[in-house]
Amino acid sequence: MKKIIDLIDQEMTAAFEKAGYEASYGKVTLSNRPDLCEYQCNGAMAAAKTYRKAPIMIAKDVTAQLASCPLFASVEAVNPGFINIRLAGEFLAEYMNQMAGSQRMGVEKTDSPKKIILDYGGPNVAKPLHVGHLRSAIIGESLKRMGRYMGHEVIGDVHLGDWGLQMGLIITELQERKPELVYFQEDYEGEYPEEAPFTIGELEEIYPAASARSKEDEEYRNRALEATHQLQMGRRGYRALWNHILQVSVTDLKKNYARLNVEFDLWKGESDVQEYIPGMVKELTDSGLAYEDQGAIVVDVKEETDTKEVPPCMILKSDGAALYTTTDLATIVERMKLYHPDEILYVVDKRQEMHFVQVFRCARKAGMVEEDTKLSFLGFGTMNGKDGKPFKTREGGVMRLENLIREINEEMYRKIVDNRSIKEKDARATAETVGLSAIKYGDLSNQASKDYVFDMDRFTSFEGNTGPYILYTTVRIKSILAKYREEGNSLEDLKILPFAQDSEKALMLETAKFNGVIANAFEDKAPHKICSYIYELANAFNRFYHETRILGEENQDRKRSLIALLILVRDVLETCIDVLGFSAPEKM
Ligand code: ARG
């Protein structure tokens, strides 16, 4: 379906042309005086210079052409030369009916579908998920869903950090605690046990302990570095331990992501691309791009137009070890080989921007990707506490994701049971659903690149620009529809009639924007645009709701029309919510 603004634009440009003016002057925008009209065209003012004519004259010439246009209730030329447009009730109703009758409420899939690899999540194995990983998961999941809704093939890859020093640290600490384990016997040739010699709880305690000790104890740190090296060289016992760590950790990660309604197609990680590194380094060196600098292998990536210094991209350290850049480059090599995507999009903390500038430039210079393969970086800002500093626990430690979710759910639960009699079990389940909306909407409603303040009280409020408010509105619609059905009515084959009051028109106008908003939001990789849209839509609905008798409406045709509009608004809201990565309960 065409966007409503394009339909209006079409009429206006045609009218400019018929009146003898350049069609391009007929561009229409949303009105900035919604009290006067819904859409407007300022083209007459711009055309005045070209045609040496008063803008109001031009505007009048144009409006004369539109006198009998069925789209408009009125088209007025007003001083000094604005054209104010008010839509006809029939046209708007017809647009609503078309939306309601189409599978996807008027959204057409893209005519150039792309294969996009979305690199998001990025948790580190054996380290607990913390709020820093929250944003990547939330924003990435939403982009994945938005892209799919628009008809692209989006492959989400969690890209585990599973190959770094943290592995060596855990192995070293385990050896301290349980030196008798068979994994540490160098001459052992038998099979290793299937069960891990630790639980996730132990693992989560081992890593911080090891990390803390390594900062104070140099000898310990060197042992951990050596263990990392040996693991990477393929020492059997360490490999077996590493497998256990991965297994235990991934099981736990999957559980946590599931609670966030986040799902990955690929569970690949840094370790998966190790086999590509030697060949990649050889090619870079053979082609002359990479050279030795104080023992390390580097590639120059700075460009003349740089305003900031872009240091060379380091491919191997002087001891031959691979780095973060190395694995990211090798991952590009693998992704091109296995998936041949049109685009790789990374959703990572914006503080890593320079890393990605280096990686992208190096990949391009070396021809690892094709000329038209897009490499994009969506850097997100920090989630801060109310003190404006990165979000911490009350004790000042790093907040674990699990605990954050628990706190939100507790708060939601309190609000839900307040003044209400509701079964404990139902209240808990609802609190989880609404809690998730609070976290996700709180995050997504901000432009991704900006820092934002995580404000528990505000995010969990049922009023204002929040997830719970959006859900509350959706549930309100659902319960009206449920009551209507309980009265013995069918929700099928209903027709939307022209609006009878202003708030109804306003609701229709807001609803009509859906296809434009969703396409544009993905284009700009901006989930916050969907958030602003549903906030406006929810406001329009609530205003309409307070002014309108719906179930009490006596004229049955009108009642059916109101119900049909509600169904459409519910579908739009629920689609948007789903694309953002959360859902609405039936009741709350
Ligand atoms: N594991 C990394 C971190 O915690 C994020 C990974 C982002 N993705 C990537 N391809 N580098 O900082």
Automatic annotation (TrEMBL):
A motif ('HIGH' region) lies at residues 123-133. The keyword Kinase does not apply. Keywords: Aminoacyl-tRNA synthetase, ATP-binding, Cytoplasm, Ligase, Nucleotide-binding, Protein biosynthesis. Residues 470-588 form the DALR anticodon binding domain. GO terms for molecular function: arginine-tRNA ligase activity; ATP binding. Belongs to the class-I aminoacyl-tRNA synthetase family. HAMAP family: Arg_tRNA_synth. Monomer. This is Arginine--tRNA ligase. It comes from Candidatus Pullilachnospira stercoravium. The gene is argS.
